Inverse folding.
């Protein structure tokens, strides 16, 4: 209400009644202004509290330890991409030119010569153990070729292959024998050890070692190069990257595609995604790409993990990947999955309770910090907060799940309906009431709203014994990737990203099946090249991580059980 303005002379001429009305109007206006200012102050204080809480959470993500293994999005911060980059499989490779294979003499030079020449590589191999192998024809076969039993054996040519033996290296120098009969007919013995790559010294053992360095132990290629140099083996990062990339394309990809087909036969699978940066993807620097992860159901047999690269986080990727799948997908609350849920009646999406828990856990942690700083003894305790109550209910459900772990899927559903379902009903009924009493932009308010939005998906596990309560299986599958990318520079090309996805898939699959990743990579590189490129992939069945035909040395031994301590 606008207050009329008067001059001093006009005020003196006003009557008593007019003056009283003017006074009341002015007082009312002042009161309204004060009320508005009070509301604004309260709003600002609430915003400050919310922003302070969010800042504490952000600091925790940047500098603190994480109690959960979930992913966080660093936004569009350019620096974060430098940290979160993937690999260097193609950074040092020029695919426009032919790859020049290194000579064995340059890989393993004589130690004292290297010192004299200050890093230049000598041709003497005397410091590296050599194993002489004669590629010969058996006498029975020679008798068939030379029935008169007269022939002369001589060396036709020599070739070398570099083998990796953990903690040591050997050069296998093959001397290929040839045989000449009295009629001057010459027959050469076949190579006992065909090359893994054309005219290359690379062997399954050395390539598997490089793969193990990078995709299992999270060691960047340049550090692997340094480690090999300390063992007097000089391999350039270009050569190592080339070997790994080519072997992924030629051999490992065949196993990958068989696993991908098998994934669609599972009743339940898990899905997750994490950001990466690819330098040469046709977009501006800093543009986000994503590595998508799909895993077989945590409660199903024969686990395996598959990585898939895509330029975006849009619905297009899961839509294309899952087009032939008709089961249940366990995910986080990514909206793109919800869009796909509306498009497909033959596809079910289940939510993750651990993601719901994180929001409440962050609020509880923030409230504890505020409580320590506050001197107000009359302030409500953390245990009285909505977030703390939500945590108690979710943790109780999780406790029930641990109790149901040994049950069959059918038994698990019955147990969930009896013990967990009533608690879920109480949880969501209580949340709807709590939401009306909570500021929407507060940490607690956001956690409550997120849970309410996910209710449909969070209830799926109550009716399907194969569906777990959370998406931890996918997050465990992606963990090695997120740890490793902190050590590496970036993905240079889309091809490099796809090769990395394939190799990460096999490394993680080996781990979840209790295989030794190095031995498994080596075995795959020994066996797959034996089969022609045009041959069907039926032989891959014998190479699957759960195949009974895998050699025992590939499987991890059960760790010895610790003896109970005596008290």
């Amino acid at each position: 209400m606008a207050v009329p303005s008067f001059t001093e002379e006009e005020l003196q001429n006003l009557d008593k009644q007019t003056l009283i009305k003017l006074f009341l109007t002015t007082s009312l206006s002042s009161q309204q202004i004060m009320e508005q200012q009070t509301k604004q102050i309260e709003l600002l204080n609430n915003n400050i509290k919310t922003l302070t809480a969010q800042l504490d959470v952000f600091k925790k993500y940047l500098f603190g330890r994480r109690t959960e293994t979930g992913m966080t999005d660093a936004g569009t911060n350019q620096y974060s991409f430098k940290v979160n980059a993937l690999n260097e499989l193609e950074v040092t490779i020029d695919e426009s030119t032919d790859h020049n294979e290194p000579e064995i003499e340059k890989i393993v030079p004589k130690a004292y010569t290297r010192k004299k020449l200050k890093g230049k590589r000598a041709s003497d191999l005397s410091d590296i153990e050599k194993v002489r192998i004669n590629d010969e024809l058996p006498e029975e076969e020679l008798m068939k070729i030379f029935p008169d039993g007269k022939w002369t054996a001589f060396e036709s040519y020599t070739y070398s292959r570099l083998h990796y033996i953990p903690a040591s290296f050997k050069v296998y120098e093959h001397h290929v024998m040839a045989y000449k009969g009295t009629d001057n007919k010459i027959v050469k013995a076949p190579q006992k050890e065909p090359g893994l790559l054309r005219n290359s010294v690379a062997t399954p053992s050395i390539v598997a070692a490089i793969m193990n360095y990078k995709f299992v132990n999270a060691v960047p290629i340049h550090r692997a190069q340094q480690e090999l140099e300390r063992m007097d083996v000089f391999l350039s990062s270009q050569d190592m990257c080339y070997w790994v990339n080519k072997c992924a394309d030629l051999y490992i990809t065949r196993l990958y595609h068989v696993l991908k087909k098998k994934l669609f036969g599972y009743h339940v699978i898990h899905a997750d995604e994490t950001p990466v940066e690819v330098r040469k993807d046709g977009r501006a620097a800093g543009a986000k790409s994503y590595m998508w992860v799909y895993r077989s159901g945590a409660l199903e047999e024969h686990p395996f993990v598959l990585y898939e690269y895509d330029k975006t986080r849009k619905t297009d990727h899961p839509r294309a990947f899952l087009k032939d799948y008709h089961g249940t997908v366990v995910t986080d609350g990514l909206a793109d999955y919800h869009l796909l849920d509306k498009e497909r009646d033959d596809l079910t999406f289940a939510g993750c309770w651990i993601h719901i828990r994180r929001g409440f856990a962050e609020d509880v942690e923030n409230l504890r910090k505020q409580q320590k700083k506050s001197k107000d003894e009359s302030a409500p305790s953390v245990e009285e907060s909505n977030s703390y109550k939500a945590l108690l209910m979710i943790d109780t459900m999780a406790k029930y799940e641990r109790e149901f772990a040994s049950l069959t899927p059918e038994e698990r559903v019955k147990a969930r309906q009896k013990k967990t379902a009533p608690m879920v009903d109480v949880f969501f009924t209580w949340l709807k009431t709590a939401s009306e009493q909570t500021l929407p932009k507060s940490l607690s308010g956001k956690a409550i709203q997120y849970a309410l939005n996910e209710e449909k998906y969070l209830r799926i596990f109550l009716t399907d014994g194969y569906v777990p309560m959370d998406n931890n299986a996918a997050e465990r599958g992606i963990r090695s990737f997120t740890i490793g990318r902190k050590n590496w520079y970036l993905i240079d090309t889309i091809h490099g990203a796809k090769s990395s996805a394939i190799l990460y898939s096999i490394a993680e699959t080996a781990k979840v099946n209790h295989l030794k990743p190095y031995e498994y990579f080596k075995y795959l590189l020994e066996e797959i090249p034996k089969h022609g490129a045009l041959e069907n992939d039926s032989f891959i069945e014998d190479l699957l991580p759960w195949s009974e035909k895998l050699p025992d040395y590939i499987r991890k031994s059960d760790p010895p059980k610790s003896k109970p301590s005596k008290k």
Remarks:
- The two ends are 81 Å apart (CA to CA).
